[in-house]
Amino acid sequence: MTKTGPITKATALADELVDHFERRVMSGELPPGARFPTEAAVVASAGVSRTVVREAFARLAARGLLESRRGSGAYVADGARYRAFQITAEELREIDDIHRLFEMRTPLEIEMAALAAERRNETDLKAMAASIDAMVQSSDVDAAVNADTAFHTAIGRATRNDYFTRFTEFLGVRLVPPRTQYLNIPGAVSRQNFVGEIARDHQAIFDAISRGDAPAAREAAAQHMRNSHDRHELMRDTFNKN
Length: 242
What we know:
2 domains, mainly alpha, elongated, two-stranded antiparallel sheet, Four Helix Bundle (Hemerythrin (Met), subunit A)
């Protein structure tokens, strides 16, 4: 499969270790409070370098599975089996990973758009309109990504359901194509067209929400996700040609 960024052998080995220990923790084989094997023990048993083990342990700690105790070692975190759902950058290296994220997002986006159409206020509409304007006027990748994220966050807030708001804020930039995807579009004109297409999708969703038309908002959100899928397929083709 085509990668969106370089994957070194060390990174791949660390991925395997993370998956291995995560399965052991989630299955209960390594319960909360249990001691992780020492770095030296993992080096010997897995046949990897100490650097790989340290990277894997750092990722496990970032995921809330491992906690280090000075002078004692690494232990399974007390709340490891109840950690928050998360999507990490390491999990979004391939176009197919992005498509799986779209599959998860689609029903969420459709329902949020419909509820926003029924519950939005003027402040919500101003925030959505401002994010669309910011995307159209964006001159760099970061500005486009931030505007994209702000639009979906504004819809989440307009639902008046705090769970939607918290979930969209939690996902953050994972709700939009990674920066590497924007950067891999060849040529400034192509990138400008790409951003323009997203802005038009957002405008259609905004128009329906502004009218208070929940069915139209649902359809516009669904179409946006279909278009996003298609845009990424085109990028896959571009990568394969390079």
